[in-house]
Amino acid sequence: PHTPADMGDGDAPASRAPPSIDSEEAANAFFASAPPAPRLHETRGETSAFCVHHGYRAGGDGVGDRPIVLVTSGGTTAPLERSAVRFIDNFSSGSRGAASAEYFLERGYAVVFLHREGSLRPFERRLPSVAAECLENVRSVGASSILGVMRVVDESRGDAADDGPSNGGRVEAIPTAAQTLAPAVLSHLDAARRGALLCVSYTSVFEYLQYLREICVVLGAECGENAMVYLAAAVSDFYAPWATLPEHKMQSRDGKDKDGGNGSGLVIRLEQTPKMLGHVRFRWCPRAFVVAFKLETDPEILHRKASASLRTYGAHVVVANEMAKRRDAVWMCSLERVFADGSRAPGTVRELTRPSNERDIERLIVDDLAERHRAYAAWERTKKTRGGKEGEEGR
User: Fold this and answer.
1) What's the predicted TM-score (pTM) here?
2) Within 10 Å of residue 261's Cβ, how many Cβ atoms?
3) Which InterPro entries match (predicted)?
4) Percentage of the chain exceeding pLDDT 70
C-alpha cells in the first residue's frame, strides 16, 4: 500500500520554520546547558587529521582519496544525577552500527565510528557468539567468556598448559575459534593499516550530541558531498536538563516529594531532547548525504513517520525498520527531489529483504546507500563544474 507517492513524490523538502523542538534556539539552549564532553577538542582535531589522511583539506574542494562516512551506533543515557549513579538508558547493543561500519569499510569508505562506550564495535561483534559456539562442552556460572576460547601454550613443553597456571608462554585461540575469527582479525588489521577507522566513544546524550555536531561540522567543511552521515544510534527522546540534576546520589528517603507527596515516591520532570536531524542536514554538513533511521512496532505508523521525517528534516534516505522484522527486512525511503536546474530525482520506497545465505541485512543496506551516495556526489560535482547552485530547491 505504500507507493513512492506516499513518500512525497512531487515534493521537495519544505522550506519553513520548524517546530520549536527542532529550532536553532532549542539546539543552542541544549548545548549551552550541557556539561562539556570530555574529549571534544581532541575529537575535533582527530577528525580533521583523519580527513587529511584520506586526502581532504580544510576549506578544500571536497575531493579526497575515498568517501568518508560517520556511523553513529548504540544507545544514550540520560543522567538523573550529576554523579550518574542513576540514569535512564535507551538500550541498544550497537549491532547494526558495528555491522554497517564493517561493510562500509569493505566498500572502500573511511569510517568515523561514534559509538556508545561498551557497545559492539566493528570486527569485535562476533566475539560473544564465537565464545558461545566454541564452549558448548564447557559450562560455568554466568555467560560464556571470550577467555574460554583462548589457551596458553607452554613453549618449553610445546603444548597447551591447560593443567594449571603458567608464568609464561604464548596465548592463542583454540583451533575452532581461530578459524571463525580469522576473517574479522584480518579485516581489522587491514583497516588499521590503512588508517580507515576512527572510533569515538560517548555515554550520555549530552556527550553524543556534542560529538555529533563537532564531527559533522568537520566533515561538512572538509569532505562536502563525499561525506555520508549514517545515524543508527538510539538517541534518548527525553532527558533531565543538567541544571536540574542533583550533584550527588539521590537518597531513597529524603522527605516529601516535590509535588507534595508523602515521600514514598520520586517525581522527575523530563524534557524532550531537541531534534538534531535538521541541523545535521542543513546547518552542520549541508552538502553531506544524510541517512536517518525509524523503528516502530506498527508498520502503518512506521511508514507515516518515515514520510514525515523525510518531509520535515530533508534526509536523503530514511531506513524504516519494523521491530519484529528489523534483522530480515527494511524499507529504504526517499523523497522526490527537485534540483535548481529543474531536473528531478524520483522518490522511492524500496524493500530490502535478507536472503537466507546472507548473514547480515546491513550488507544490503550499505550496498544500496553506497550506490545512492555515489550518484549524489557525482551530481553535486557536476553542478559545481557547471557553476550551478548548491543543493536542491527548498534547502
Assistant:
1) 0.83
2) 11
3) CoaB-like_sf (IPR035929), DNA/pantothenate-metab_flavo_C (IPR007085)
4) 77
